[in-house]
Amino acid sequence: MIQLDHVEKKLGNFMLTDISLTLPKGYILGLIGRNGAGKTTLLRLLMGLYTADAGKVLVLGANPKTQEVQVKSQIGWVLTEEIFAGGQTLMGNADRDGRYYPEYSPDVFLEYCGRFGLSVKRPLGKLSRGEKLKFQFAFALSHAPKLLLLDEPSANFDPDFRAEFFKIITEFISDGEHGVVLSTHLTADLDRLADYVAMLEDGKLLFCMERQELADSYRIVSGEEYKLRLLPKDRVVSMESGKYGARAFIKHNRHTTYDPELSVSVPTLEEIMFYHAKKK
């Protein structure tokens, strides 16, 4: 679905540096990282809104900048920016922009709006933040995309719709011919949803791996500090001490053994992101 080879992009004082990753068909890639890490810049490169300064960007086998029509006709997106006309109705916006997509279907758009509880006769500018993102999602799905690029959408959804949102994107990839890139700081969503996870930090790719492989690669070890100090130093990513003991975030493999008096747990994505940032 996507392929990035040694991609670089400079924007002012920010630099996206040496990014290489791929996403096969039929999978969801979760993008994590703190604000300003480069997630939105990466999505804009995939959309063809930015041109890479170095490296190769392919989306569905094509260059999103030089083969713009081919790529954009096959991707759907939800962005944090408001790029539709606030004074027009939802239907007016969809029909206006839908003419640029060969597979756009007003009936599919209407179906999703009904499913999302949106009135297509309302002006877009009168909608709440969450409703505007629902509209973008309905429009994205209305032109039969192969790839969805989603930038922090679920943070503005109520719990009921978030469940519906996850159900739809899971259905979207179920035929093995579609893909999703989901940027979010709500890492709990990706714990149950993502097939692959990529973490950016200050414009650099810290890792990109299968979710299960990531779960198998780290552990949180808690106990008395002197026992944690005996862990191999090359495996300790970060450590913190408190009044009642210490915790270490360490690299793990199936051959790693631990002192039986230490408590060992599998970290969540939120903890993985936190401890990598803490190391910095």
Question: What's the quick description here?
Answer:
The chain is an alpha/beta fold. Helices cover 32% and strands 29% of the residues. The protein folds into two domains: 2-210, 3-Layer(aba) Sandwich (Rossmann fold); 214-279.
Your description of this structure?
The protein has a six-stranded mixed beta sheet, sandwiched between helices. Strands 11-12-10-13 form a four-stranded antiparallel beta sheet. It has a three-stranded antiparallel beta sheet with strand order 2-1-4, covered by helices on one side. The protein has ten helices and 13 strands. 32% of the residues lie in helices and 29% in strands. Helix 4 runs antiparallel to helix 5. The chain has two domains: 209 residues, Rossmann fold, CATH 3.40.50.300; 66 residues. It has 280 residues and is of the alpha/beta class.
Instruction: Give the end-to-end Cα distance, rounded to a whole number of Å.
Output: 32 Å
Q: Which structural class fits the helix and strand makeup?
A: alpha/beta
Strand arrangement across the biggest beta sheet: 5-6-7-3-8-9
Q: Oligomeric form of this entry?
A: single chain
Shape: elongated
Q: Can you tell me the residue ranges where pLDDT is under 50 for at least 5 consecutive residues?
A: none
Number of domains: 2
Radius of gyration over all CA atoms, rounded: 21 Å
Broad CATH class of the largest domain? Alpha Beta
As for the CATH topology of the largest domain, it is Rossmann fold
What's the CATH H-level homologous superfamily of the largest domain?
Answer: P-loop containing nucleotide triphosphate hydrolases
Q: Supply the CATH architecture of the largest domain.
A: 3-Layer(aba) Sandwich
